[in-house]
Specification:
By secondary structure, the protein is α+β, with helices and mostly antiparallel strands. It has five helices and eleven strands; from the N terminus they run βββββαβαβββαβαβα. It folds into two domains: 72 residues; 90 residues, no CATH class. Strands 1, 2, 3, 4 and 5 form a five-stranded antiparallel β-sheet that branches. Strands 9-8-7-10 form a four-stranded antiparallel β-sheet, covered by helices on one side.
Length: 198
């Protein structure tokens, strides 16, 4: 798709995803700015430039970074979305519900539907990891990452309902997977430019 480009240049753009406004008034519908990756929580995206526009107009512009070369673009995508965030959760809701029902009815399974996290659940972010309702679900690295994204200092406690929706869904899905619920799988949502070029 992009093999015939004479140059490989991308823009890392600051975005207000609530209003849709981009730095420098960049038009998200511009057909020659192809979105490679977006981080909704942090408010950034990377777009590949498909035409021969003058890139110099973006130099030294607040909220816009020019990235040149396939390897540098790949690295920018990885920096924007670390490996564990390059995937999204796909749910087959009927399968999830069936799985929960089956587990709940199995007398040998300690799973209880009342234990499924909801907005009132407590998330404790500690030095050694992340605890949901007292149960450890993530290690130290994820604890630091969550703290950075929420602009908080470890340790801290927050209600699940107060987290950004994407973060809340990821935590809930991880909890369900850890408790053996079927019907949730990970799908790759972002590819590096080098992978797209084949």
């Amino acid at each position: 798709m992009f093999r015939n480009l004479k140059r490989y240049v991308a823009l890392k753009i600051k975005v207000d995803f609530e209003s849709g406004e981009r730095a420098e008034g960049i038009d998200p519908r511009d057909p020659n700015l192809y979105a490679l990756a977006q981080n909704i929580e942090d408010g950034w995206e990377i777009r590949l430039v498909l035409d021969d526009r003058d890139i110099n107009i973006y130099q030294n512009v607040e909220g816009v970074e020019v990235i040149e070369g396939v390897e540098n673009i790949d690295n920018a995508i990885i920096d924007l979305l670390p490996n564990d965030e390059q995937y999204l959760f796909a749910r087959d809701d009927l399968l999830v519900q069936t799985s929960i029902l089956a587990k709940h009815q199995d007398p040998n399974d300690p799973f209880n539907v009342n234990d499924i996290p909801d907005d009132s659940s407590t998330l404790d972010v500690r030095i050694d990891g992340v605890y949901l309702n007292g149960e450890k679900i993530f290690g130290q690295k994820i604890a630091q990452k969550i703290a950075r994204k929420l602009w908080k200092t470890v340790p801290f406690t927050v209600k699940l309902g107060n987290l950004p929706i994407e973060m809340r869904n990821r935590i809930t899905h991880i909890w369900l997977i850890k408790h053996g619920v079927k019907g949730i799988k990970m799908i790759r949502r972002v590819r590096k430019l080098s992978e797209m070029l084949g």
